[in-house]
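Recall that a protein's primary structure is simply its ordered list of amino acids. Everything else, from secondary elements to tertiary packing, is in principle encoded there. The following example makes that idea concrete.
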Amino acid sequence: MTTDILVLGLGELGTAVLKGLADILPPSTTLTALIRPSTLNSSSQSTAQKLAFLQSHNITPLTGDIESPPPSSLADLFRPFTIVISCLGYTSSGTKIQEKITRAVLAARVPRFIPWQFGVDYDVIGKGSAQDLFDEQCDVRSLLRNGEENPGTEWVIVSTGIFMSFLFEEFWGVVDVKEKQWVVRALGSWENKVTVTTPEDIGRLTARIVFEEPRIKNEVVFVAGDTISYAQLANIVEEITGSEVKRELWGVPNLKQGLAEDKDNGVKKYRVVFAEGRGCSWDMEKTFNFQRSIPVEDVKTWAKKNLLAKRE
């Protein structure tokens, strides 16, 4: 019996998941990637690289649009597949794309589904947080767990924390350089922790979860490259740069005030949630990779390879 896997999205996460799957693809298993028609018809170098990647890994491209068609058309698109894995993040269309995908998967009676929940622990954060986009993620979980809405699709949620590189992005504001002075800012407190994983490790671990025996079903699986406090992060930056790091605390009240003055700022919404410290980290000991002794890249290893290069 053939297992047909469809991966939605060919961005950084989708590519990593496709590679992870292709590297350990069992016999009688096919791998398909959904690509927007506009992407496939583009003559850009980026598109050429993506198509070359698919060809080299024996992945079949399938053209399709997620945002425009009604859910019934999406259900028809998904129906031939045994497993659907969504690596499509939030979109600019304003539609509830994650809920739309989930409803289409359930309507198509796809046997297994991994939704785009590669992030924080939405069960702990819950609805009504500073980041309103998280409400949809909670709604997706409710749909999957509702026996009336979901009569038979098995699901697995892979909680990964944020991309490891985000910790060091200038827009995030946690690690920065001001006038040649390295700065590390703690969100909420220096003891607050954050879980992070590289896209490459997310891809490898998701593939292992998909093919795990006995089969994992109807549960949240936690993975992590590292779980680190902001105090530990400051020490790592100091060690790698060889210079004294300026430490700044961004407390919850000040972050909330900043958001109140700029209500539509998505980054400020995220900062408040992470500063509040709920659902943004978990112990390494509870992770799938730790329990199976699967090696992953931690923050210190990543920073040694990338930190100084990012600031040149």
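The mean pLDDT is 94. The longest helix spans residues 133-145.
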